[in-house]
Specification:
The chain is about 25% helix and about 25% strand. With about 525 residues, it is α+β, with helices and mostly antiparallel strands.
Length: about 525
């Protein structure tokens, strides 16, 4: 075990596992990876269908938002992973990257020089180990396993209904065109989840220059004379310790955890820190601001029979599904539930799709989502505005590191977000009304027939929307003249030497898709930049 460390990586999530892997490719580079959560030993983590049980429970921090004033003052569950692999260990495994325009916007309009799509595409390709697709848009040898599912019967009916609605079929959302409907590729390999921990960390765990510590909670970053020197940690085994880094401290605890840790370390908005009695090491006003997340709204239909995955809620069918999976790694357990999707336009004049859909071949699969009567089977269609204009905040509740932060995504805080979200719900209901799905639907239970007017749909959106697990942008990167930019395009924290942030919090704005693959891309590019400096 190394006696000293060149780099301390704080957070063993989607990006942290990437950074630890890439830095330790140099045998002379000593890396310590710290994760507050435990190991990914729970079997449901590795079964794709286990996603439905992972959005609450011991592998999350159990956060809820502050009351959302534009969403009926609801305190909405806000799943953040607390396990090695982070979000990639508990999410639905949907593999999408976003539209190239998203990254060009970062570079051309938001001060993120070097992050245009032409600059970062190679990192997507380097990370990807696609078992089906290849060519200019895909990698086949990367650590992140990507494969096709065998869609359920109702998923195929959904894809056909989207075509009947007017969308083209799309076999590759990460190719030359994003718009259309199809089955999602997922971050799975041989019927098992390929999290960042599985793809990047597991193969290199025995490297002599890599130390991995789970169950280790980082209380603060140590900063001396405007330079990060190490971290103060606590664990049940060793109590409180101080660990030093000779080169850099790298924060990869995500868009909620990273601003929280920054502020606990005295790096954040000075007035807020002073209110809580935290010594201000450096006034960094952008820390915890600019929170940007997708607000997903579900519609749910009851089926005429047991055509969806809900069939397997019955014990004898669940037993059969388990046998099938154990024997062949196929069947319902190999499904991520969120099998199909689409990218489409609420605004026909938008330059790229502005709404994304996720089709779930079941009902009530996730905590907080409405379901169908017991004994029935159902399906769910989720939609969200791809580039919401509302911005929220992450703030400290107190100076106690154990206290949950105050998370305010400010859902529907901009009128354009509400307008686009309502169009997504309306389109969802129209998709359910197309022949290929309609013949299997007894009735649409949420929203029911009483929801008719624009005001009715707005009320529904406020009542049933929730996070889509894509928090970003709370320590955003930007140019020198941007007062809210926390890091520069090299991901270096402004005003603090040898401290970088290498996770989804550095995104200048939310990209138009799921965020796991882009977060892994950030880890890949960060590792290259760090290696270029040493």
């Amino acid at each position: 075990m190394p006696q000293g460390y060149d780099f301390i990586v704080v957070g063993g999530g989607s990006s942290g596992c990437v950074v630890a892997n890439r830095l330790t490719e140099n045998s002379a580079c000593r890396v310590l990876l710290l994760e507050a959560g435990g190991k990914d030993s729970h079997p449901l983590i590795h079964m794709p269908v286990g996603f439905a049980r992972m959005t609450t429970g011991p592998h999350t921090w159990g956060y809820t938002t502050v009351p959302q004033k534009h969403a009926n003052n609801r305190e909405i569950p806000y799943a953040q992973a607390r396990v090695i692999g982070g979000g990639s260990s508990i999410n639905a495994g949907v593999f999408t990257r976003g539209h190239p325009r998203d990254y060009d916007r970062w570079a051309e309009e938001e001060g993120a020089e070097g992050w245009a799509f032409k600059d970062i595409q190679k990192y997507f390709i380097r990370s990807e180990g696609n078992t089906i697709l290849a060519g200019d848009w895909h990698g086949t040898d990367g650590p992140l396993g990507v494969s096709n599912l065998s869609p359920q019967f109702m998923t195929n009916a959904f894809i056909q209904s989207c075509q009947e609605f007017g969308m083209p079929y799309n076999s590759d959302f990460n190719g030359a065109k994003q718009e259309g409907a199809g089955a999602y590729q997922t971050t799975t390999r041989n019927g098992r989840r390929c999290s960042s921990a599985v793809g990047y960390l597991q193969p290199v765990r025995k490297r002599s220059n890599l130390t991995i510590r789970t169950g280790t909670f980082v209380r603060r970053v140590l900063v001396e004379k405007s330079r990060a020197t190490g971290v103060e940690v606590w664990s049940a085994k060793a109590g409180t310790e101080t660990i030093y880094a000779e080169n850099e401290v790298l924060l990869t605890t995500g868009a909620i955890g990273t601003p929280k840790l920054m502020m606990l370390s005295g790096l954040g908005p000075a007035a807020h820190l002073a209110e809580l009695g935290i010594d201000v090491v450096r006034d960094v006003p952008g820390v915890g601001k600019n929170l940007n997340d997708h607000f997903g709204i579900d519609i749910v239909a009851e089926l005429t029979g047991h055509q969806s995955l809900d069939k397997y809620n019955k014990p004898h069918w669940a037993l059969w599904a388990g046998i099938q999976y154990l024997a062949f790694r196929t069947g319902p357990v190999a499904s991520n539930v969120v099998e199909g999707g689409a990218f489409w336009y609420a605004d026909a004049n938008a330059p790229s799709p502005d709404v994304q859909f996720h089709f779930l071949a079941g009902a009530g699969a996730e905590a907080g989502v409405p379901s169908v009567p017991k004994g029935s089977s159902g399906i769910t269609l989720n939609s969200y505005t791809l580039r919401p204009k509302a911005r929220g905040t992450v703030r400290l509740r107190s100076a106690d590191p154990k206290s949950a932060p105050l998370v305010d995504p400010n859902f529907l805080g901009h009128p354009d977000d509400l307008k686009t979200s309502v169009e997504g719900v309306k389109m969802s209901r129209e998709i359910f009304s197309q022949p290929s799905l309609q013949k299997h639907i007894r009735n649409i239970r949420f929203p029911d027939d009483s929801v008719k007017t624009q005001a009715d749909f707005e009320t529904y959106a406020r009542a049933y929307g929730r996070t889509s697990y894509h928090p970003t942008c709370t320590c955003k990167m930007g140019a020198d003249n941007d007062p809210m930019a926390v890091v520069d395009p090299q991901l270096r924290v402004r005003g603090v030497d040898r401290l970088r942030i290498c996770d989804s919090s550095v995104m200048p704005s939310l990209i138009g898709s799921n965020t796991n693959a882009p977060t892994i891309m950030i880890g890949e590019k960060a590792a290259d930049m760090i290696r270029g400096n040493y």
